[in-house]
Amino acid sequence: MAWFMLPVDLLFRYLGLHINVWLTLLFGFLFLPHILGVSFGIHQYYTRTLLSIFKWATLQMELSAKEKNQQLYKHYTRGIIAKTPGSTLQQEFEDLQQSTLLSLEPRFELSDVFFFCRKALESIVDDDVTKCFSAQELESWNLLKRSNRNFRYLSLKLLALWVLGVLIRYGVLLPFRVTVAVTGISLFIVLSTMVGFLPKTNYLSDKVHWMGYRLCVGSLTGIITYHNRENKPKNDGICVANHTTPIDGIILANDLCYSLVGQLHGGLLGMIQRAMVTSSSHIWFERAEVKDRHLVCFKREGMRNTFLTNLQIISFTGSCVNNTSVMMFRKGSFEIGCTIYPAAIKYDPHFGDAFWDSSKFGLVGYLVRMMSSWAIVCSVWYLPPMRRKEGEDAVQFANRVKAAIAAQAGLVDLIWDAGLKRTKVKDAFKEEEQQLYSKILMGGHEDQNRCKHTEGGCPEGDKDK
Amino acid sequence: MFLISVSAAHLLRLYERFQFLDKDNRGHLRPEDFEAVLELSENPIGDRIVEAFFKPGQETVDFPSFVRVLAHFRPTEKNRNRDKGQPDPANSRTRKLKFAFRLYDRDRDGKISRAELLQVLREMLGMQVTEEQLQSIAERAIQEADLDKDGAISFDEFRKVGPLELGSAFILLTVRHLNDEVSSLSYWRSG
Fold it and tell me: How many domains are contained in chain B?
């Protein structure tokens, strides 16, 4: 049996060594830099290497797919529906009716129903709104099984690479990150409560907050690039950003200390929120209270007047969307009348998808996914401050801000209210379609009616369109 | 609108869509599941389209039937060899027209009655037109299409009125090959 014990013995010794090495690395590379705010620049090499590996992997898959003479599954298959871009109801009907050669002016045909029919089927197969709410899929593969469906085309090389990737991510990166996160959060809660007992100075509480945020970002290996720092929010305004994930707040707060406005959660998150309140000022409210917008505004007014230095208020408006579109912002933040500092956040999905599909997995599942991705890479752009113009109401102002954010981040600007994800569409939309169609028909019909009343025929081709 | 080649990738895409609609993971869809498609609620005849997926009397639709309905909307091949022995593919002109016919003919008696036509018109136009206008449109449509003067439009009469090329542009596998792909698909997913 002795020969059997030897490898086990070696293993244990290796592990013991391993743990020591691990702890030193952890301390040296993760804690200290984050606590002190120093960075080594390793991240860039990391991302560049990863990107070149991903490109190679995708190329391999395409080659093997070509061998099998099939197409790769790409989520952006707009090829499944060939929609005519930018066609209006009017154009479609004219096209449809030209082929019948029956009359020159638009009027009801039995085939008119085909138009609505086709639109309905197109939306059943693929509609713009629900696409926003499912995670974005990539054209090139990033070695995460969850973001690719072309698994059939894996060659042996790729499979080996993928297994290696899994081992690294779950065996090395995940434990590192979990340790950092746990330590970071506990440190933060403890220090924050302690600072709460001291007289309220901004300096200490800022430091504690910064440390906390940096550790959190580090635990996710967040690589954040801030652009246009000269537009950073100053003390007198509200910072508004597009909301993709729960970590948007952490990403923004990594750069500057904010007072946050948000919904109060239960559990661990609630504990953190409560700890934050002890050392600096934030507003947490219940979801039901949001209906009473006056209450929220009043609270914010109070905040603004009492604490004038070093505090800004972030309000995140709208529900989570998957970072390809910006939904309608809620009015509340824009009614107050102070300066708005828009910020646009855009995630790079190549290294890890930060989108939280709350119908698929809960918070813990989400965190595990995040921590086992390669990295969370995002860019933050600070936009120049905006104020409400004369004669502009809150909704128009909100839309203006939203358009600016969408333009900066390269996102699609949708008019759908994100609340639609949870509630039914209003009949108003249906009426609009009916109105459009009736205008087309009735326009033609008025000519016909006039013709009926006059004696004799009416001149052909006499349309007033 | 132009042809795009068919592949298992597209079928997989549709399967994902099916799964997305099937929120409770039952393996089949019910009429309520289609409400998840927000743009459908905005369509005046949305409810009729949803009905078209379900065979008369059935409350559920499974994936092959789902695809079969969608397969109607492949662009019609212009120069298809008309083999006498083989059944019409789903995307033939006849099949498409039949699909559209059934949108009007809800009670499936083979004829579009005036009442049924009025119903569809009312759905498409809503409150935007008066009752008289509606009646006159329906009257004219029936007069033009109804060749045997029985006051209703049969399928043959409907065919003559329909346009030469339906404006639809889906690409899917033909129904003939459907079963093979579906069975191989389910094997792959469970494996």
Answer: 1
The ipTM is: 0.77
What is the Cα–Cα distance from A329 to A401, expressed in whole angstroms? Answer: 9
**In angstroms, what separates the C-alpha of A22 from chain B's closest C-alpha?**
37
- pLDDT tops 60 at residue A62: yes
Q: Search chain A and give the residue with CA nearest B139.
A: A108
Task: State the residue range of the domain holding B28.
Answer: 8-78+86-186
SS3 of residue A382 by DSSP? strand
| Lookup: tokens for A34 | 């984050």
pTM: 0.54
Question: Between chain A and chain B, how many beta carbons pairs sit less than 8 Å apart?
Answer: 179
Amino acid at A128: D
Q: Name the least confident of A14-28, A196-210, A323-337, A407-421.
A: A323-337
Q: How far apart are the first and last CA of chain B?
A: 37
Region A38-44: mean pLDDT is 64
Question: Which alpha helices (DSSP H) does A143-292 contain, by range?
Answer: 156-167, 174-197, 202-219, 248-253, 267-279
Q: Which residues of B are less than 8 Å from A438 in CB distance? A: 125-126, 128-129
Question: Distance between CA B9 and CA A316 in Å, rounded?
Answer: 38
Reported as a pLDDT band with limits 50, 70 and 90, residue A99 is: very low
Q: What pLDDT is attached to residue A146?
A: 55
B106 chain-A contacts, CB cut-off 8 A: none
- Determine the pLDDT at residue B191: 30
CATH of the domain at B26: 1.10.238.10
Residue B21 inside a domain? The answer is yes
Q: What percent of chain A has pLDDT over 90?
A: 0
In this model, does residue A97 exceed pLDDT 60? no
CB atoms within 10 A of CB B81: 6
Contact A323, A346 (CB under 8 A): yes
Tokens of A336: 């107050």
The answer to whether position B138 is within a domain reads: yes
For chain A, the domains span 156-421
A283-285 vs B61-62, strand pairing mode:
unpaired
Spatial distance between the Cα atoms of A261 and A238, rounded to a whole number of angstroms: 10
The residue type of A344 is A
A222 CB neighbour count, 10 Å cutoff: 22
